[in-house]
Amino acid sequence: MPFLSLAYGDTRVVLLIGLIAIKFPRPRIEPLWWIKRFLFYFRRGEVVKQMTTRYHENLLLAVAKYIGMPVFTNWDEWRISCRYLEYLPIAPTYFSFLGLINVQPRGKPIQGKFELPVEFALLVASNPQLAKTLRKDNFCQFGERILLVDYGERELRRAIKRTFKLSPAFA
Questions:
Q1: Whose C-alpha in 41, 53, 78, 104 is 20 to 30 A from the C-alpha of 59?
Q2: Could you give the CA distance from residue 21 to residue 102 in angstroms, rounded to a whole number?
Q3: Is residue 34 pLDDT above 70, yes or no?
């Protein structure tokens, strides 16, 4: 494991330094991508429909939310870490500066066979669409424990909030 490296995700860039992982929002303002996406949905007559059904009813707020999604992802990861850390096998977020920077411990990539921790297997059982999110790449090994390090995906956040809000232990 190199001392210094970069990893890229859909919404964030992760700077790995020693035992620390620093997550920065990845700008979603890539002109060629926007043009390609716009033309794809425009041809299908779904530009406004796609943005308004996925992000917000109001098109202006939908675009703002889409562009700001990486910051919201960091911020939600911080909030989930604060609220559910003792109940779920997730890597702690030590620090977040308004979602612009998140600092977490750096784990070792999982080698060999991977078995989903029980808590997340239960989430997948009740939310099958999470199977693609809770994959081996999003977990790391910390000593003997396997912890989820990337829990900023929107559907996962919603499932965690929905599932654990029901129990009085998580109030």
A1: 78
A2: 8
A3: no
